[in-house]
Amino acid sequence: KRPAGAPDRSLARDVGKVGVVGAGLMASQLALLFARRLEVPVVITDLDQERVDKGLAYVQAEIAKSVAKGRLTELKAAKLRTLVTGTVDKAAGFADADFVIEAVFEELGVKKKVWAEIEEIVSPETILATNTSSLSVSAMGADLKHPERLVGFHFFNPVAVMPLLEIIRAEHTNDVTLATAFALGKQLKKSCVLVKDAPAFVFNRILTRFFGEIYNAIDLGTPLEVANTALDPLGLPMRPLELLQLVGPAVAAHVGKTMHVAYPERFKVSPSMEKIVAAGQPLLVDDEINPAVV
Ligand code: CAA
């Protein structure tokens, strides 16, 4: 069954090579997922060799873990290892890519600069995807020569296990691009949903409000451990502060501020949030809550 809003599958283009801009945690997880599910070459790039090497090391370590867990045969692992490569030379790495996804710093200016550079390298047919978690995809594509091939492709951490994939149709995204995005999402074995190009889309819009209410409870004097454990009867897979740690307090705060600008009445910037980000240390130590943080 075709997902709601997805164009005719026959429009989808084949993807024989993938480029990943960025070699951070999200980008490295994406590189591994694409290589594993599509079985095509995947090239990662970043600003310097050190970052690229760190991303590649993550991919190799995850492959080794999968072998150790018996989820991947040695033969498949050997193939997978050769599929993911890295370079600082985007021109060499991406020239023949059919699909390029970026997972760089969550700042509109940074992402626009990345796309301007990539557009000089790739063919006008190459599909461009952004893993932005909160920014406007239409704004990101505004200065592209071919904005019709840009689409939002928003994954969740940990990429290997979270089933949801938010696909965002920007103002200029055409049906070929959208059909390719849905076809790829299916190959990646994700549950694809088409969401509006609105600040933080759907998942992060709700999650940001969720974190906001936890912070607000702490602002009002609720002890950290109470705010963290009050929802235990719901049986969520992670307690709120564990989830916050997984996302990264600074990343969550960044999204929170984007939401505050978009909807000042509904999304507040909280003093506890600022303190937790400024503390720059894990919120939870040995599974115990560290009350010294707030
Ligand atoms: N990479 C690869 N696999 C991972 C992984 C990772 N980082 N973390 C966990 N897994 C795998 C484990 O290997 C395990 O697989 P097997 O059963 O095959 O061995 C499986 O996931 C379950 O893991 P665990 O048994 O260790 O732990 P768990 O049952 O507690 O599950 C969890 C861990 C899947 C992370 C679960 O706690 C969960 O779903 N948490 C919520 C995560 C969430 O909400 N993420 C969204 C964050 S928001 C975001 O990402 C959006 C944004 O833009 C900021």
> What percent of residues adopt helix (DSSP H or I)?
40-55%
Mean pLDDT: 93
- What is the N-to-C succession of helices and strands? EHEHHEHEHEHEEHEHHHHHEE
Q: What does the radius of gyration come to?
A: 20 Å
CATH architecture classification of the largest domain: 3-Layer(aba) Sandwich
Q: CATH-wise, what's the superfamily of the largest domain?
A: NAD(P)-binding Rossmann-like Domain
- CATH topology-level fold name of the largest domain: Rossmann fold
Q: What composes the largest sheet?
A: 8 strands, mixed
Distance between the termini: 49 Å
Q: For this structure, what is the CATH class of the largest domain? A: Alpha Beta
Q: Rough shape? A: globular
Poorly predicted tracts of residues: 286-294
Bin the strand percentage. 5-15%
Total DSSP helices: 12
Q: How are the strands of the biggest sheet laid out side by side?
A: 3-2-1-4-5-6-7-8
Structural class, by secondary structure, is: alpha/beta
Small molecules held by this entry: acetoacetyl-coenzyme A
Q: Using DSSP, what is the number of strands?
A: 10
How many structural domains are formed by the residues? 2
Family: In the central section; belongs to the 3-hydroxyacyl-CoA dehydrogenase family.
Protein name: 3-hydroxyacyl-CoA dehydrogenase NAD-binding domain-containing protein
Domain 3-hydroxyacyl-CoA dehydrogenase NAD binding: 17-197
Domain 3-hydroxyacyl-CoA dehydrogenase C-terminal: 201-281
